[in-house]
Amino acid sequence: MSAVPKPRQQMRMMIVDDSNVMRRRIERSQQNDQLEVVGTAVNGLDAVTKFKQLMPDVMTLDLTMPEMDGIECVEHVIKIKPDVLILVVSALADKATAVEAIEKGANGFLCKPFTDDQLNEALAELIGE
Amino acid sequence: MLDAEEVRTFVQGTVHFFETATGHPATVGSPYLCIDKSAVVQDYAGVIGISGNREGKVYFTAPRGMLSVMLMCMNETDTGEQNVRDLVGEVANTISGNARRDFGRNFVISTPTICDRNNAATAATTGRSFVIPINWRSYAANVVVCLQ
Hints:
The complex is a heterodimer of chains A (129) and B (148).
Chain A: E1 11-16, H1 20-29, E2 35-41, H2 44-54, E3 58-61, H3 70-80, E4 85-90, H4 95-104, E5 108-111, H5 116-126
Parallel strand pairs in A: 1-2, 1-3, 3-4, 4-5
Chain B: H1 4-22, E1 26-28, E2 32-35, E3 44-52, E4 56-62, H2 64-73, H3 81-98, H4 100-103, E5 107-109, E6 113-116, E7 128-136, E8 139-147
Antiparallel strand pairs in B: 1-7, 2-7, 3-4, 3-5, 3-6, 4-8, 7-8
């Protein structure tokens, strides 16, 4: 009799974007059953506050936001939880910005606009599927 | 002053946005020059301030019906006022942010300011602006680029 594979534990995901349309789009479009959306935040400052409470494993993060931008937010959350997986989802399409985000501690970069397939591929790659 | 190659960056960015985000392509008319006169703000406009190596603003303006249908094409069920305003800003933000591929990281973009017909002064431009007409499904919208 073959062993039944043990289901993998879901990873807790937080979505950070100042656009409500974009937050809802990411939540609706992500179809990875390894990911459970546990919270959203509207800017970097809000994200850091909620991050401390929710301690997510995965984060999608916009860069251009009021109060605190995404790059500064990466620096804060990496200190709180160094192994958090961060997918930057931004319209800023220059290579230097992507490189800076990765150097600060982000793990992936998805440029807006994106299709549902591109989002799901980026998330799958982020969590190592 | 914007040159023809730079205008092309915004045309390509606009076409790419509609194709990718809504799944329905847009056609772009011939960009035209508007001097010392703001292009008409339709029902809503998302305005991005530009600083750094260039100064000015970029805005996307569209009728409410178009924004509602765009939301539907993105599988968004809430087509209320807040999401319509949010979307017009997100389109402007995406088109402006994508332009950094050509303009570089010192093309600094602000977060969007949203205006409507009642406070169209936010979108006012001085000097020379390029207006890029957009046709999407049965709707007409504009991207306006005013850069020094």
